[in-house]
């Protein structure tokens, strides 16, 4: 089983951003933890991060046919990424939406997700641990489908 792990704008700055909202872990540290968990689960992960919506869409479109699912933290694209929403809808690949902070407890403009109704599940407010939770839940879900 292979999964895509996609991170959107500004997530490359984890560890330098607002620690109260995002924690102190870097994206690299989260990715290493995910890789270790994926090895335990016998799953392959392919990581991608971009600050550009079009690059994320290109990556999904180029890779969705060769994966079982997607784990995505779209960052701010959650709230305004209509093109990303259309892409995820078009490819019909099961995905989990991840947020380090609890978007429903933040500023009003961050409380609405354009993709949550398409996602298998939304995990929010668990910082880096949310990625591990999402990995375990998506793998479990996909294995039940086999």
Shape, per Cα inertia axes:
globular
- Span between N and C termini? 11 Å
> CATH H level: which superfamily?
Dehydroquinase, class II
Mean pLDDT: 95
Helical coverage, percent range: 40-55%
- What's the CATH first level? Alpha Beta
Number of domains: 1
In short:
With 146 residues, the protein is α/β, with parallel strands linked by helices.
Q: How would you explain this protein's 3D organization?
A:
Helix 2 runs parallel beside helix 6 and helix 3 runs parallel beside helix 5. Strands 2-1-3-4-5 form a 5-stranded parallel sheet, sandwiched between helices. The mean pLDDT is 95. The chain is globular and about 40 Å long. By secondary structure, the protein is an alpha/beta fold. It is 42% helix and 18% strand. It has helices at residues 19-22, 27-41, 53-63, 77-80, 82-91, 129-145; strands at residues 2-7, 44-49, 69-73, 95-99, 121-124. It has 6 helices and 5 strands, in the order E-H-H-E-H-E-H-H-E-E-H. It has a single domain (2-145), classed as Rossmann fold (3-Layer(aba) Sandwich), CATH 3.40.50.
Labels describing this entry:
about 150 residues, alpha/beta, Rossmann fold, five-stranded parallel sheet, 6 helices
